[in-house]
Design goal:
The chain is an alpha/beta fold. The chain contains seven helices and four strands. Strand 3 and strand 4 form a beta hairpin. The chain is globular.
Length: 200
């Protein structure tokens, strides 16, 4: 993440790993999902870093061929794409219930691929960050919450798995940009073309 990199097939690494891989896997497995089965996509609150005004430029150059690359900026793009994907998924695979989750600030080794300055900052601030961050075992709670919705006698309250966004095991606040259905369709079609799937 510290510097711009590409996958072997030419995709920009962040979008390739965080979005296109998920997109491809979910589409390949969708026909095997039982009716009302769930697909839960892990996103991040960092999607808020991309405003609605930013999206046209992002869609014109999702792989950062000409856009200025920044570590958190492109990460935020990939996480916004996760929300678009999760929202459009049940429109294509109508038997599937789709949810998207921000797991919270989780203490992981994500900085290992960042710059030396970021790694140093993480090491020095570690004791303080540790009090604010969740252990990975707690970070999965919101994911499990969505997986178990309706399975343990809980009431869905009209949440039908149409791409609702959860954070801390409750409905979360998603950006205005992430709710744009036109952009969601464009990201879906772009992703479909990039990974070579045929599903309409």
């Amino acid at each position: 993440m510290a510097e711009q990199r590409t996958c072997a097939n030419g995709w920009e690494m962040c979008v390739g790993c965080n979005h296109l891989g998920h997109f491809l896997l979910a589409n390949l497995l969708a026909s095997w999902v039982v009716p009302n089965g769930k697909i839960v996509t892990v996103s991040s609150s960092t999607h808020h870093l991309i405003s609605e005004d930013d999206v046209p430029a992002v869609l014109a150059d999702p792989m950062c061929s000409n856009r200025r690359y920044t570590t958190f900026g492109q990460y935020a793009v990939s996480k916004l794409f996760n929300l678009y994907f999760a929202s459009h998924l049940p429109k294509v695979h109508r038997h599937v219930r789709s949810y998207v989750v921000h797991p919270g600030l989780v203490r992981t080794n994500v900085v290992k691929n960042m710059s030396a300055l970021m790694r140093m900052g993480d090491m020095l601030a570690g004791p303080v960050l540790g009090t604010l961050q969740k252990h990975p075992t707690k970070g999965c709670r919101s994911i499990l919450h969505c997986v178990l919705l309706g399975e343990t006698g809980s009431v869905l309250d009209g949440m039908e798995g149409r791409g609702e966004y959860y954070a801390n095991s409750a409905l979360g606040w998603r950006s205005v940009a992430s709710m744009n259905e036109e952009y969601a369709l464009k990201v879906w079609n772009m992703s479909k073309e990039l990974v070579g799937t045929k599903k309409k």
